Amino acid sequence: MSLEKFSLDEKTAVVTGGSRGIGKAIALQLAKAGANVLLTYARSSEAAEEVVHQIESAGRKAKALKADAVDFAQAEKVIATAQKEFSGIDILVNNAGITRDTLIMRMSEEQWDEVIRTNLKSVFNYSKAVIRPMMKARAGSIINISSVVGISGNAGQTNYSASKAGIIGFSKSLAKEVASRNIRVNVIAPGYISTEMTGQLDESILKSIEAQIPLKRAGESDEVANSVVFLASDASSYLTGAVLTVDGGMAM
Ligand code: NDP
Q1: Cα dihedral 98→20→245→35 (10° resolution)
Q2: Labelling 107: which of 57, 63, 153, 199 has CA 20 to 30 A away?
Q3: What is the mean pLDDT of residues 106-113?
Q4: What is the pLDDT of residues 19-34, one digit of tens each?
Q5: What is the mean pLDDT of residues 83-100?
């Protein structure tokens, strides 16, 4: 087997929410594999600039843009910048996401809307913005970060799991629409990964989640990022519409 197929040399990647957590690991791993990376963030400009610095130190091009993933016009601007300053767009990773967990009895309309807009509408925004240039190039890889909760559900996360299940349906439909243009659309459904998002959980809840994971531990952001590199590269050239669970066996 040739490892060349895993190389992302000369490719341009856009990663939404690349300032922290899983998105940061994705941006860094894509760059390690050879890609130039444009990452977006909502608030953490310092953290985002640190990711840019790390990528540039490794000899790749990088840029961070403050862009609310909820806003379609901002998504269009990000993709236009990637095309102009990075000469094209080969890889899109829709990673930006939030939680607003509570039981439906207590969930406000605002908590529902915020999660659906941030996690699901953002995927439409960036996919729509990127699809024309990818169709023109007759090549592209779109990777959408869902969650195992979008497959199995979770009490206290009706908003979040609806958004993550929505990503799976969206991705399969889009995969069918654009396969003839050599654009692949795949989903990664992480299980429980140690980041600031999951850091909000109580120690006792974390212990009980870990006990239910066949591999008996939380995953690391890098373990999700490795799968993103695979799906971004030609090594996964026959995968589209797939949902890859990166979850230590949690969803089995
Ligand atoms: P974090 O909270 O650690 O990071 C979230 C990232 O998304 C940050 O870069 C943040 O930017 C960005 N972001 C949030 N809202 C917006 C917005 N409106 N516009 C642009 N960027 C935004 O989350 P994780 O790294 O844990 O999660 C990343 C993805 O992985 C999410 O989609 C999440 O649902 C998914 N996931 C996570 C799991 C886990 O266990 N951690 C499990 C399954 C899925 P800023 O820094 O500026 O706030």
Answers
A1: 130
A2: 199
A3: 98
A4: 999 999 999 999 999 9
A5: 96
